[in-house]
Write a structure and sequence with these properties.
The protein has about 170 residues and is mainly α. Helix content is about 75%, strand content about 0%.
Length: about 170
């Protein structure tokens, strides 16, 4: 039973691979199911103490894979501009830059798992809001995209602070 949250996270990865090939009329339904698995896996893990190391790592990876699948599909179908794609991906881009910076300039560094953090969770929620709104209303709302980008930047700063402050323990 304690693996149910992990199965839900894996199902989000499966949905990510289905999304580009699904008829566009099914996209909103797929996103809503993915959002449901996102909410349910965390709820079950906390409520029944089904938290696992695998789940702590798998859940954010599943989120990023699903989100990337949606954005790449939208870019390939010309539904989104590069500008909006970049704005909606600030957290992911920022995290890659932070990890690259720390790895390059602290050569003896080992990179550890970065736990979920407040602004990262806010960014994920805003990303889903953008996706749902774009699929439901067939348009992007620029203030919501700006808010998502800002949350992504704050998440990047939060990850940088976490990794910088924990660097000595990462090198052991």
């Amino acid at each position: 039973m304690n693996q149910i949250p992990n199965i839900l996270s894996v199902s989000r990865i499966v949905l990510a691979f289905c999304f580009p090939f699904a008829d566009s009329t099914l996209h909103l339904s797929i996103v809503l199911v993915a959002l449901g698995t996102e909410a349910l896996d965390g709820f079950l893990a906390r409520k029944f103490n089904w938290v696992t190391t695998l789940g702590e790592r798998l859940d954010p990876i599943a989120d990023k894979i699903f989100f990337a699948s949606v954005l790449i599909t939208w870019k390939m179908t010309h539904m989104i501009s590069w500008k909006f794609m970049f704005a909606l991906s600030t957290r992911e881009i920022g995290l890659l830059l932070v990890i690259g910076f720390l790895f390059l300039f602290r050569r003896n560094s080992r990179l550890a798992f970065v736990p979920s953090m407040f602004f990262g969770k806010i960014t994920t929620a805003l990303q889903y809001m953008n996706i749902i709104f774009a699929l439901w209303k067939r348009e992007f709302v620029q203030p919501l995209i700006v808010l998502t980008a800002a949350a992504g930047l704050f998440a990047t700063l939060q990850y940088y602070a976490y990794l910088s402050n924990n660097q000595s323990s990462l090198n052991k």
